[in-house]
Design a protein that fits this description.
Layout (H helix, E strand, L loop, with lengths): L3 E5 L4 E8 L2 E4 L9 E2 L2 E3 L5 E3 L1 H4 L9 E2 L26 E3 L2 E6 L2 E3 L1 H20 L6 E6 L5 H13 L3 E7 H10 L6 E8 L4 E9 L2 E10 L4 H20 L7 H17 L5 E7 L5 E7 H26 L6 E7 L6 H11 L12 H13 L7 E5 L4 E5 L3 E6 L4 E2 L1 E7 L8 E8 L9 E9 L11 E7 L5 E7 L5 E5 L10 H11 L1 H31 L5 H18 L4 H31 L4 H12 L3
Parallel strand pairs: 1-11, 11-12, 13-18, 15-19
Antiparallel strand pairs: 1-2, 2-3, 2-4, 5-6, 5-7, 8-9, 9-10, 13-14, 14-15, 16-17, 19-22, 20-21, 20-24, 23-26, 24-25, 26-27, 27-28
Length: 619
Amino acid sequence: MGKVIGIDLGTTNSLVAWMSPQGPQIIPDETGQALLPSCVAFGENNKPLVGREARLGKVAPADRTFFSIKRFMGRGLGDFSPEDRRYLPYPVLGDDRSVLFPVADKNYTPIQLSAMILATLKRRAERYLGEFIIRDAVITVPAYFNEAQRQATKDAGELIGLDVLRILNEPTAAALAYGLDRVNAGQIVVYDLGGGTFDVSVLRLEEGIFQVLATCGDNQLGGDNFDDLLTAYLLNQIQAQCGIDLSADREGISQVRQIAEEAKKELSFKDRVRVWLDLPEGQVFEYYLQRSFFEALITPLIARTLGPCAQALKDAGLGIADIQEIVLVGGSTRIPLVKQQVEAFFGRKPHDQLNPDEVVALGAAVQADVLAGGTTDVLLMDVIPLSLGIETLGGVMERLIERNSPIPCQAKQTFTTGVDGQTGIEIHVLQGERELAQDNRSLKHFTLKGIPPMPAGLPKVEITFLIDANGLLNVTARETRSGLETKVEVRPSYGLEDSQIVQMISDAFEHGADDLKNRQLIEARVEADRCFPKAEDLIQEFRTLVPPERLAPVEEALGRLRAIYTQSDHTQILQALADLEAAALPLVEQRMNQSVQQVLQQQSLDEALAKVEQARRFS
């Protein structure tokens, strides 16, 4: 294996790093610049330009200068409200399953534009390292990227000929870089507030082993949101002072957004900044922004990050006093108010000595070196952010892999049919924390076909979930008796709505008691539904074989179950089921004796065994 690079594909800026003999190192461009603005502009002849020149907005009109591309990866247009796109100077097309960026007579996908950014970083690394071609890379993503977003990132790398060895969570990458300078064991929190996403992870560090205990966050919260608020405020000020409305002017919005972003950065080390803009008809807009006003503007957004912090601690089973170190990652953590709020929440000063823009790329380089066989004294144990399972009878979600389970991992569970002669089973793969399927996110529907007809309950269908090191899910369904098997890779073509992951977790806690009650009631009714036809068949079968007084207890118990079935107390339904099974037991035993006698009479073994199985299973 040749040199393996680590890439931080960011919302605002991207970087590439490698493991030098002295340790992980950022690879600069020809001018010595480390950061590559994650921006693609299409200038003359629709030729793409990537990076700083593109971001300055001088090589192409605003409607052909694309930034914040990462937010659109693996998502559909339906995942964004008009307000989300209000201050984007470029058009966004698509449908519920895709996003497209129009340039002249061609549409580009987020994957294609991201591939252009990755290609620029790849060429930078090849020039710097003297490699003719670099093929292998580790690329980082926010911890809360779902399967579609992770796959889209991997596809972007593969589009330019990279073999993406690992899709690595950004907070985990930061922990890898941070751990190189730390020898003390303990629990650390990685607070990662970047340009487009927020992640918080709780990790345990001990003797070179980085174990992710829990992760939480918001994949639609970051510095872009700060820019949106400031852009909206400045547009209002321009209209109030100068009487000019730029809200429908793409070039105007682009210029205002750029001065808003620069003002945000300056306010990290100044108390006041001057912003100005040349306007039509010779007018000039001039305004002084106070840091105190900016902080008041963004305080609600910063407060939104503290809820996931508390949730991550709770998921890890830790309190604030159990945390030894707080690590700040992401350019937005340079804002003084962010540092103050994090320090106030955790009761200790955050560690911010490492460059928050570079630490993720450095960690990716460490992981790249591990995969290349270089670094051997580091072990990384990551986790999945949300539970995964399938829908079962009654619309209940059966979890196979719980959230915050270490990856890679595998889980198996056996299910069966609910109808006699059933030759196919539809498998519905779900993601989320609620008890009912309808309240969780649907990932995939597929069908296992061709099952030999058998009595209900006889087929054994083994469902296997396999999550690889990239957090991507493969599902296998296998009928064990016939060997019939179907396998799918879960690659949904759209992502979650804004803040949906965080909302899914909070909903699970808020509705936990009601969800459990509903699940217990559904499961009890499903069991009763299975029992009704079995009991009726049993009564019909013995109506002419036994005296009426032997059937009476079964008929009375069946009547009580029907009466209780419509009520909302699952314990009463379960008790009525138990009473019915007890009343039917003498007849079931008589049926089993008859089946055994048929076997002794040399009936076909398969037929006899099927009858014994059917006789034994009352429900």
